[in-house]
Amino acid sequence: MLIEQPAIPKYIVGFDLADDFCQVAFLENPGKKTPKDPVTYSLIEGGEQYDIPTAIAKQNGVNRWVCGQEAVAAASDGTSTYIPHLVTLAIEGSPVPVENSRYEPTALLALYISRVLMRISNRVPTQEIGAIMFTSRLMDNRMISILENVKKRLNLTSELYFESHESSYYNYLLMQAQSVREPGSMLVEYETGGEIRICRMMYNTRTKPIIAWQEKESAPGLFSETMEERDGELLGILQKAIDRRQISSVYLVGSGFDLEHMKKTVSFLLRGRRVFSGSNLYGKGACYGAYLRLNQPEIASQYYFLDDNRLKENIGIRAQVKGETVYHPFLEAGVNWYEADVTDDLILEDGNELHLVLTPLTGGKVEDFMIRLDHLPVREGRTTRIRLHFTMTARDMVHLVIEDLGFGEIFPSTGLKWEQNITIHG
Known about the structure:
Radius of gyration: 27 Å
Strand content: 35-45%
Oligomer: single chain
Helix content: 10-25%
């Protein structure tokens, strides 16, 4: 009897999901081997028309739906109901009226995603997709819940992963040559009429694993009348963004750059740096992100990315143990800020001061943070026991509650409590 073996999932897909357009990239899963550069699906064979409008349309009077460019075309002649901004509709959650019916917005988003996957099936058969990584500018609990709902509606058997654009940028760089990645890289994103978003990827190569983190800022768009003036505007913005930092590569993402006519800007960027332009970095980065999750190649263990949700400093105390000074940690860098919740007890040596040590993994200066426990009774011989409860109220804010526990029956607790907010600068 011949037993048919199940097909081995062959492809990895990166799905860059935005409210206006989406892009889809894919690569063949190479296992532990170094992957090839992902291919971004183009609406025109051999071209670079990557943007698929995040919209669907229903033909009036019949149950016929189309998506993307077909939806835009169907809506233009007035014979169909056009439904754009599917991501925003799903986040808002209100039923969407279409003719005489009302549709769940997540169902409409699921329909759109299924049609996009169907569209690329001539290149990537759906049943051979081993993993899909969704990436988005905003990837929070609400967005993840929506995409999990989409998976259930479509009965997808692929592994489903989620990450932000920032993580996709990190994953993309991780799979590039070291000379492109280090000592630092900068991504500049600009769509005509919007703001300029700048993200610098920096590395602390003195640690093992190497710590990576991002520095972000924004600037107004380019609104001068002439191209020469806009070139000067952009040059000034990027000179300030780079300043004296060591940047080995710059990625220009978006439709707002006219590099053919921004000669001063290009000339500045090319001084000791490699410059890349295009619009499909995030989808490719999402592909690499899924590859790293599936295969765990060696390079993934050599770096650690402190994204915006993670604490970037170790917080602890130096204490005496058997006559030697040792470091005792409370909160360790790398924890998601919204998951930080640590309680610990300690005995004060003397006095009413507590000195915390803040050590940034990004290579900055170690800080000594002193907390004075006002009105704490003076007790002799290491007989003051306190309880510390650490949580975080924001990405850069640690909230500490300290409670006097007394010392058994010898020194009953006073019931005193102290609260302190600690701003994280790492």
